[in-house]
Write a structure and sequence with these properties.
Chain lengths: 304, 240
């Protein structure tokens, strides 16, 4: 029983992390059909901002020393800022380009951000201890779970709730949903394209910041590569969920999280090091079964 | 007063020329019926006015303001409301949300909410299903919804592309009856594009015929729809 609870919590917290990453990609894809591969590097950028630029092995904590109440808004703002700047400086020029061109541009932008960080901080991973008290285990029906896992799940659910409320209840949310379904029609009804797109980038940037803060708190390591692997899984989640479907992206992210944790438990000991092969195998099977993903958004369906 | 002037516009899609020097004008309060065979450039004409496709030559003015080169959202704000071919309802949004999108650009929010009530009273079948996704509506109902949606933007001019596309004859009659009722009650200015000229008998007003990206004939809608000048122009004057 305790093992089962442990597993559930593991799956939920891993899935939460993937879900935040996947949402950051799905939000932008929904509006301008761009798969933003720079998202992972935006995550890394937000985490590096906790440190003072220095190529020394020892990390000099900078923004990370701020009180939580200032730190979180600052990092969120930074993520939103970088993301909006990417839109204005880079992606805006490619708006009428084909999706492949935009994707290549996002790869390039990702490398620019990554090498910018490399210049300032060197490639050595650094350690930082953020919210140390969160790593203490708590007792949950006999299972001992790190408080951080519970907090991760709670924060993610909170973010999902707020985002849903924003999309469903606010004027801007309505405009974003309309634009995601049919951008041209939305514009012909007076929806301002630039505003909606910048808003999507700002939200995505904030999600990147939140993702980064959670990862760094979990791992205690700041690494130039940290965004890349998360980005890959998040991207896979958006594809499995059905590109453009936010709900799909979130559900697929939790499914991948659950699959990873489940494989870790049920696979024979010898096969466990190859867990990811099994997870990605399941991804292939899912895509063979449903090539367009689990949830096909209306905007992707053929219009008559 | 002339509301819209389209003066000698040309539009190309790559090497394909869709419009070559087409000109039309619409006066306040009138209905202009644009007809012509498939590929004549009728839809492109509307898209050019809406700012969705770029012009290669010519100018477009709406209430004295030059609008060519402006963004679709700015043109919508100047009072041009478009009902595109195939209707383009936002299927995942509710009926109510579809209608409310156009309110965003209006300064008179109170009047906008009164207009919403008006739209619901004109289309009672929409009122009963406000919070259903618009995708569940039938083709005819969707056509009514997009007309209502266009009205919510409080336009000076409504352009409708192929309102009868894919609808049963009885439903087409309903759509036109509603359109004409709205025109007479609210003093709307209409620009209707149809491949078939039959409905021009209902709308009256002026009619233009387009062929190969040009306006080739213009006159009184009912007269043209009745006579055979239209057929001649439609199929060409034996010039090829």
């Amino acid at each position: 029983m305790t093992e089962f609870i442990q597993m559930i919590i593991d799956a939920l917290s891993l899935g939460s992390l993937y879900a935040l990453g996947a949402l950051g990609i799905a939000l932008i894809f929904g509006v301008i059909r761009l798969v933003n591969f720079a998202h992972g590097d935006t995550i890394a950028f937000c985490v590096f901002a906790l440190l003072w630029p220095s190529i020394d092995a020892a990390a000099i904590v900078f923004a990370g020393n701020l009180p939580t109440i200032l730190l979180i808004p600052l990092i969120l703002l930074l993520g939103a800022g970088l993301s909006v700047l990417s839109e204005i400086i880079v992606f805006r020029r490619f708006r009428s380009a084909n999706p492949a061109t935009m994707m290549i541009a996002s790869f390039a932008l990702g490398f620019v951000i990554r090498y910018f960080l490399l210049m300032l901080y060197s490639s050595r991973p650094k350690s930082i201890n953020l919210w140390a008290n969160l790593s203490e285990p708590i007792d949950l029906y006999g299972a001992r779970v790190p408080l951080l896992q519970i907090v991760t799940v709670a924060i993610t659910l909170g973010i999902l709730g707020l985002l849903t409320l924003f999309l469903k209840r606010s004027r801007y949310g309505l405009e974003m949903r309309a634009a995601a379904e049919n951008f041209t029609m939305a514009r012909m009804l007076g929806v301002r394209a630039n505003r909606v797109i910048m808003l999507a980038f700002a939200l995505s940037g904030m999600l990147a910041a939140a993702t980064g803060l959670i990862v760094v708190t979990q791992t205690g390591t700041v690494d130039i590569q940290m965004g890349a692997s998360l980005m890959l899984i998040a991207f896979i989640a958006t594809v499995i969920g059905g590109l453009g479907s936010l709900t799909g992206a979130v559900i697929a992210a939790y499914l991948i999280g659950a699959a990873s944790v489940l494989m870790q438990v049920v696979l024979p000991l010898d096969a466990r090091p190859f867990r990811d092969a099994f997870v990605y195998g399941a991804v292939i099977l899912t895509l063979i079964w449903r090539p367009n993903g689990l949830f096909v958004p209306r905007s992707a369906k053929q219009r008559v | 007063m002339t509301l819209l002037t389209v003066d000698g516009i040309s539009v190309s899609y790559g090497k394909l020329t869709a419009l070559r020097g087409a000109s039309i004008s619409v006066k306040e309060g009138e209905s202009l019926f644009v007809t012509g065979p498939n590929g004549a450039g009728k839809s492109t004409l509307l898209k050019a006015i809406a700012g969705v496709v770029a012009l290669r030559a010519g100018t477009i003015t709406l209430t004295g303001t030059t609008i060519d080169g402006k963004s679709p959202e700015d043109i919508a704000r100047l009072g041009f409301s478009m009902v595109p071919e195939g209707r383009d309802v936002f299927g995942s949004l509710t009926i109510d949300e579809n209608l409310r999108i156009g309110i965003g650009m209006r300064a008179d929010k109170d009047a906008a909410h009164r207009d919403l009530e008006t739209v619901y009273s004109v289309f009672p079948m929409l009122a009963g299903r406000k919070h259903k996704p618009a995708g569940v509506l039938s083709g005819g109902q969707q056509q009514m919804l997009v007309i209502g949606r266009a009205l919510m933007a409080k336009p000076k001019l409504i352009a409708i592309d192929e309102p009868s596309l894919g609808l049963a004859p009885k439903v087409i009659d309903d759509v036109y009856a509603t359109l004409l009722k709205l025109r007479d009650a609210q003093g709307l200015t209409l620009l209707i594009v149809e491949q078939s000229s039959a409905r021009a008998m209902l709308t009256g007003g002026r009619m233009v015929l387009m062929r190969s990206g040009e306006v080739v004939l213009e006159g009184d809608a009912r007269q043209l729809a009745r006579g055979n000048a239209l057929q001649k122009a439609y199929f060409g004057y034996g010039d090829h």
